[in-house]
Design goal:
Blueprint (H helix, E strand, L loop, with lengths): L2 H14 L22 E3 L7 E3 L32 E3 L6 H4 L17 E5 L8 E5 L9 E5 L8 E6 L2 E2 L5 E2 L5 E4 L3 H19 L6 E8 L8 E12 L19 E11 L9 E6 L12 H10 L1 E5 L10 H7 L8 H21 L25 E6 L1 H12 L5 E5 L5 H4 L7 H10 L3 H15 L23 E7 L7 H11 L2 E2 L26 E2 L2 E5 L26 H4 L1 H13 L1 E2 L12
Parallel strand pairs: 14-15, 14-16, 16-17, 17-18, 18-21, 19-21
Antiparallel strand pairs: 1-2, 3-6, 4-7, 5-6, 7-10, 8-9, 11-12, 12-13, 13-15, 20-22
Helix pairs in contact: 1-5, 1-9, 3-6
């Protein structure tokens, strides 16, 4: 997270918190959540249901302003990664035998006290459950699916044989059901934008403008010979000028100039032109992240030209808007709206890199003799870290111009990630000021995930590697996870791996490191030999430890040093990434041991 964001958020809390009015009561009427009590029949919907929240049903901030349900009421179901919330006074999870995050397999035991059942197939879904560790009184029970819920399906939640700390019976809520959003409800907006925009483009490269070319001497930069900056013209599916706070449109309104930065390595010559890869930056960052030492090193070592654009909606220019949304969550829908536009921006940038009349035709991407420095023959690829790993999963699922992506320190499902990340601390302060009730806060996370699904991997994971979306090829994904990551929860990365069918490198960790009863439960190992498929590889810095088994961030010396940037900096990780992107093979760079050996 940029340090200026922490400062801005901290100094903005007092200024942005609404003045207290007559406080609205907590939104306890929404519990248990989600529930089809908050849907209505709709024959035009793929699920046959439509979400319907009353105007005063969603949580209100301290000024008494309820979250406007308009955007939520467009949904045909709830998130496939929704936290399932219930109030169970006196519940003791350990005494009850509820499966924690460290023992997910227990959730499928015959006598499990919580059942999450697909009503059509009768199959039970694995999960873990926890009490809200942020609540000192009346903590909600939070049930988190350990694999994405089937799109368009209906689920029944059953709680039974609950106990308090003295092992006395606790009254359980009655069973209830809810409907998961459909594939069209989750991905339809972006697919419409993509298909319409590329149909208008035809087989041509999009228009682009080079605004700056900087050549470096070896003394100035030993790895990068040239940096090219510019913009790509992309159909603008946003209101106004498309800036922070703009809302998504169903039809384009002019063009948007999407920024890009490309770094050409010294290894790129007419004889050895550079391979092409998009790069996705981290949390509230900028395309200039490709100037990081690890990205430059991979670029030079393996002859890649990385090009990056901004994740508008969650880029550095969005920081003030993102900060203020936590004081009035009626403004939140603009964040995933702009992120969906950013997906189209990345796709157009990729087409400009790959198409014959694109970057390869411009002098900025040629040598002094006019010879191309770009290797279009090896295709286009994607690499991204942190937010670039989270958003990159969704982007991959809709990509038509590449089939292999590396997702660095990734995960999915912000409703799980936020409170498990040290990066969320300033936003938690804002939330505590504006929506102080702890029940409301957990409802907020569940609600915003319903819209965030449109613009992050959680809404696309079931089509990322298998069951591709319409007019979209199948993809392979390599996930690099940092054990004990302080910023992106490895537990949420495991949920993504199970959902996309990724195989895991084993042994993933040396004995004694994991706190799980069955480490990496439900993720099958990579077969022997070079493997062609999707995989997850866990990288252990040796300086971080297992995170809290609750919805708390690993802050404090007992959790060691943050390993978030460790995987991408390892030479062996870069070798594995480059081999995968160029050949589709996942090679063992850790000599049949953990990565790296500790």
């Amino acid at each position: 997270m940029p340090s200026r964001l922490l400062l801005l958020a901290a100094t903005s809390i007092v200024a942005l918190v609404p003045s207290a009015a007559v406080a609205a009561p907590p939104a306890t009427g929404l519990l248990p959540f989600p529930s089809d009590r908050f849907t209505v029949a709709d024959r035009s919907s793929p699920t046959g249901r439509r979400v319907h929240f009353a105007a005063d049903a969603l949580p209100a901030n301290v000024a008494g302003k309820y979250i406007d349900p308009t955007e939520w009421n467009r949904q045909d179901g709830f998130s496939p990664g929704t936290p399932i919330l219930a109030e169970v006074p006196g519940l003791d999870p350990a005494a009850t035998g509820i499966a924690p995050v460290t023992d997910i397999g227990r959730s499928l035991a015959p006598n499990a006290p919580i059942l999450l059942i697909d009503t059509r197939t009768g199959r039970r879904t694995p999960y873990w459950a926890e009490l809200d560790a942020h609540a000192t009184e009346r903590p909600l029970l939070i049930i988190r699916p350990a694999v994405a819920l089937r799109e368009g399906a209906r689920y029944r939640v059953v709680l039974r044989n609950l106990r308090d700390s003295a092992r006395k019976p606790v009254r359980a809520p009655r069973p209830w059901e809810f409907t998961v959003a459909s594939t069209a409800g989750l991905t339809g907006r972006v697919l419409h934008m993509r298909d319409q925009a590329f149909a208008a483009l035809g087989g041509r490269a999009p228009a682009f403008t080079v605004t700056q070319v900087t050549d470096y001497t070896p003394e100035q930069d030993a790895r990068i010979a040239r940096q090219v900056r510019g913009t790509v013209a992309v159909p603008k599916y946003l209101t106004g000028d498309g800036g922070p706070g703009s809302r998504l449109l169903t039809e384009p309104s002019g063009d948007l100039a999407a920024d890009f930065v490309c770094n050409l390595p010294r290894s790129a010559t007419a004889a050895t032109p550079a391979h092409l890869s998009l790069y996705g930056h981290g949390l509230l960052g900028a395309p200039t992240e490709i100037n990081a030492g690890n990205v430059k090193q991979m670029s030079q070592t393996y002859d890649f030209m990385f090009c990056a654009s901004s994740w508008i909606g969650m880029a550095s220019g969005d920081i003030p808007y993102v900060v203020q949304t936590w004081s009035d969550l009626s403004t939140f829908p603009a964040v995933p709206d702009r992120l969906q536009q950013s997906f189209l921006n990345f796709l157009f940038l990729g087409r400009a890199m790959l198409a014959p009349g694109g970057f390869a035709s411009h002098p900025a991407f040629r040598d002094a003799q006019g010879r191309s420095l770009l290797n279009r023959a090896t295709g286009l690829h994607y690499d991204g870290n942190s937010q670039g790993g989270i958003n990159g999963g969704a982007l991959t699922a809709i990509a038509q111009d590449w089939t292999r992506s590396v997702l660095g320190v990734p995960a999915m499902n912000y409703s799980t990630l936020l409170q498990r990340s040290v990066d969320f601390a300033p936003f938690q302060q804002l939330l505590d000021q504006s929506y102080p009730d702890k029940h409301d806060q957990q409802l907020v996370f569940a609600l915003i995930q319903m819209l965030w699904d449109r613009a992050e991997a959680n809404g696309y994971a079931q089509h990322m590697t298998g069951h591709p979306l319409p007019r979209t090829p199948a993809h392979q994904v390599l996930m690099h996870v940092a054990f004990g990551d302080h910023q992106v929860s490895p537990a949420a990365a495991q949920v993504e791996a199970r959902t996309i069918g990724a195989r895991i490198h084993r042994p993933a960790l040396a004995p004694g490191w994991s706190d799980e009863v069955t480490p990496f439960w439900g993720i099958r190992p990579i077969p022997s030999g070079p493997y062609r498929g999707s995989a997850i590889v866990v990288w252990n810095s040796g300086q971080a430890y297992a995170p809290p088994p609750t919805n708390l961030a690993p802050s404090g010396p007992q959790y060691g040093a943050d390993p978030h940037e460790f995987p991408r900096a390892q030479e062996s990780a870069q070798l594995q990434k480059a081999t995968f992107l160029l050949t589709g093979k996942i090679i063992d760079v850790c000599h049949s041991g953990p990565c790296p050996r500790i």
